Amino acid sequence: MYRPRMGALWWTRSRRYFLYFWRELTGPVMAAWLFVLLWGLVGVARGDPSAAHALVTSPGFLALSAVALGFSLLHSITWPGLLGWVGMPAPGGKLATGPKVAIPFVVLWIIGSLLLWFLLFRGF
Amino acid sequence: MAERTVTLRIKRYRPERSPEPFYQEYKVPYRDDTVVLDALNHVKDEIDPTLTYRWSCRMGICGSCGMTVNGAPKLTCETFVREYRTPVITVGPLEHFPVMKDLVIDLTDFLVKLRGLEPYIQGRTEGGDLGKEFLQSPAEVERFRQQSLCINCMICYSACPVYGHEPEFLGPAALALAYRYNMDSRDRGGPERLRRTMVKDGIFQCTFVGECSHACPKEVDPAGAIQRLKIQGALATLLPRRGR
Fold this sequence. Notes:
Chain A is mostly helical and about 120 residues long. Chain A has helices at about 15-25, 25-45, 50-55, 60-85, 100-120, and strands spanning about 90, 95. A two-stranded antiparallel ribbon of chain A has the order 1-2. In chain A, a hairpin with a 3-residue loop joins β1 and β2 (about 95). The termini of chain A are far apart. In chain B, about 30% of the residues lie in helices and about 15% in strands. Chain B has 9 helices and 7 strands. The model of chain B has no long low-confidence stretch (mean pLDDT about 95). Classes of the chains: A mainly alpha (about 120), B alpha+beta (about 240). The interface between A and B is medium-sized, with 22 and 32 residues.
């Protein structure tokens, strides 16, 4: 018997593999972005705001931020679809699936984002 | 109906001749109602009787004829040649499984895993009355009907990259069947079966690619079943007194 091995480019073979692969990459990209951001914040905490200013205005950080935003949006948009797939308990012991679950989560995500934006920029 | 021809490019493996698989091409006539399995049968009956593959019912019930057709796992008895607008159709064995010969895969791994999850109704013999009838309402049947449609064709395993990378993973069909029996109101083996799915290579190994559900020819949705098992498993761990 022989057992075929998966190639390194298996994720290019279908649209769903492709989307899954990039969704899973969200973690490392966001970790890299947060690491750089924390590095800048540590500079501010140590009394060197110029270092943080230089960091956040650098083209490299702006590019990384744009990439991280793309990844986080991909994750945020595809995640409710997955939740709708799994389903949620509904009245009468039934299982609600699809848009009935996904749409409320999208609405909650938008409300949560607006609330956070308000608290950060208007609330203080 | 007019007959046209298509070239079947078949991945063959004949261990008595060569340790490596190789491709062999056959020109086959087809009509609008010819499925890939018919084309394979034509090759075996008319051109090359040494070609080896599994098939039985020819109507999408037995689950024997799963193969990789142009890179995607399919039941060949319900995959029409006319759907492929290419002059060559490549047919190989289902991916991720050891290949015994030509298009025949070894199912031992799946069968061992399936047996380990005890996919049958257990333990409800109230009052020792084995002759008692246990009625179910339509709503109770609906809770597991979708997963009960599984025909063990292994197409979900072939579509699952987690199983391809980690052959120890229990896999979509076995876990979907575990879910099916856990949701059955007649069954009392749920807690133990759930515990068996929560092992190292069990439900939490699934990273929710979802391709198993899209590839399933019977719309069983193993991916959804596994995520619901994860929720059941987490609740059973965090709230052990909550029950099922």
